[in-house]
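Anyone up for a design puzzle?
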């Protein structure tokens, strides 16, 4: 299961990561977010050691959500070298997220 980060962990885990990071901005009450759980778990297994998958709960970390312009969830931001390089919105297919990750590897 993807690691849930707080604001204090975000810099080290995402911005300073040596590998690409897929950040899932989500909320516990969000149905489409829950639907994406198994997809993200599968991607995490497939990309072990090549990319990281982490989660940010927008209810618990509203300042991070605001900083990255998260207006609707699920919202996926792909980071490389501390910068947002790509993003995707909504409950989407695994193939879309893996294509975006592959572009950053």
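Challenge accepted. My sequence:
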């Amino acid at each position: 299961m993807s690691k849930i980060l707080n604001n204090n962990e975000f810099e080290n885990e995402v911005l300073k990561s040596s590998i690409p990071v897929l950040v899932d901005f989500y909320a516990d009450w969000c149905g489409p977010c829950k639907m994406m759980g198994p997809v993200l778990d599968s991607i995490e297994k497939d990309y072990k050691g090549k990319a990281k998958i982490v989660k940010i709960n927008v209810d618990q970390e509203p300042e991070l959500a605001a900083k990255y312009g998260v207006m609707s969830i699920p919202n996926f931001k792909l980071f490389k070298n501390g910068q947002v390089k790509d993003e995707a919105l909504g409950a989407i297919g695994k193939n879309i997220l893996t294509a975006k990750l592959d572009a950053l590897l």
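A detail worth pointing out: The chain has one domain: 1-101.
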